[in-house]
Amino acid sequence: MIIKTKAHWFKMLFEWKGSVLPQLLPRLTLLFIFAASVVYFQGFFQTYNLSIDPAIFTLFGVALAIFLGFRNSASYERWWEARKLWGALLNDTRSIARQSYSLIDDEDYQKKRTDFINKMIALVHTLRHQLRFTDSSDDLKRLLKSEDLLEISKTKYQPIMLLQKLAEQIKLAKKEQRITAIEQLAFEDNFNKISDIIGGCERIASTPIPYTYSVLLHRTVYLYCFLLPFGFVQTLGWMTPFAIVFIAYTFVALEAIADELEDPFGLQPNDLALDAMSKMIENTLLEIDNRPDFHDEKFDNYFIT
């Protein structure tokens, strides 16, 4: 995810990183060439009366803009819900780490507490890997003990299995009379919240916007853009290609942005910075456990300023 301070209004006109313009350039170039061809063969098209009343594009463009606005709103809603879920994950893991100190006030429990917090950190990283379909083995190796590593590595839904491990450790603490039944329920309440967060993320990742709707909007946008030259060639002449590219950039860019935001857990520039958020959660849990921060260059360089 790209995080930038707001630039001067004139400088933003030429902003490159973070915009969708680089991926749209081939399409806009093709459209420019097509519009220039329509202007060049204008006489031929007039012979066969192949022209369209510009008023039609005005009415159709308003309707298309409304549909694109709805699509962008739906995509942004998914992006923002995913961000709220990861914000809640930060809060709930902090609460559990704090409870491990305030409710289990036992110096002999320190080694188990360190292992407990490591499992929570591993849960955060494995959730990121599950959402992105990437390999979690490196993070598991540095955070889990060998017996846990072997067991968790074989599972499909690693965050849920790590949550189960955390619950078992609290159950053992209750059995050893380190906590009361009421204190165990306090842990379980936060475990349930994390389970809801994992389920919410999985729901977003596994349920995209209906494909048929995306296809319909995609076809309509490009059909509209390629018909535009026939409506403006008589009034704009050789300015038609430039005007068409400018109009098309607005519609095509809106569609591209919606596609990018639809999957908030991806690796595109405007997707959620899950690497940076995972590192932040890990470091705040390490600080609660009085341990130094974890540093990794791939996480440090994830934000582009």
Fold blueprint:
Elements: H1 9-12, H2 21-40, H3 42-47, H4 54-102, H5 110-132, H6 137-143, H7 146-153, H8 158-175, H9 181-206, H10 211-236, H11 240-262, H12 274-288, H13 297-300
Helix pairs in contact: 2-10, 2-11, 4-5, 4-9, 4-10, 4-11, 4-12, 5-8, 5-12, 8-9, 10-11
Explain the overall architecture.
The chain is mainly alpha-helical. Helix 4 runs antiparallel to helix 9 (181-206), helix 4 (54-102) runs parallel beside helix 12 (274-288) and helix 8 packs antiparallel against helix 9 (181-206). The protein has one domain. It is elongated and about 90 Å long. It is built from 13 helices and no strands. The longest helix is centred in the first third of the chain and has 49 residues, at 54-102.
Summarize the structure.
The protein is an all-alpha fold and 305 residues long. It has helices at 9-12, 21-40, 42-47, 54-102, 110-132, 137-143, 146-153, 158-175, 181-206, 211-236, 240-262, 274-288, 297-300.
User: What would you call the structural class?
Assistant: mainly alpha
- The H-and-E topology, N to C, reads as HHHHHHHHHHHHH
pLDDT averaged residue by residue: 86
Distance between the termini: 10 Å
Residues in helices, as a percent range: over 70%
Give the number of domains.
1
Low-confidence stretches: 300-305
- State Rg: 27 Å
* Beta-strand residue percentage: under 5%
Task: Characterize the biggest β-sheet.
Answer: none
> Judging from the principal axes of the Cα atoms, what is the shape?
elongated
Q: What is the count of DSSP helices, taking H or I runs of 4+ residues?
A: 13
The count of β-strands is 0
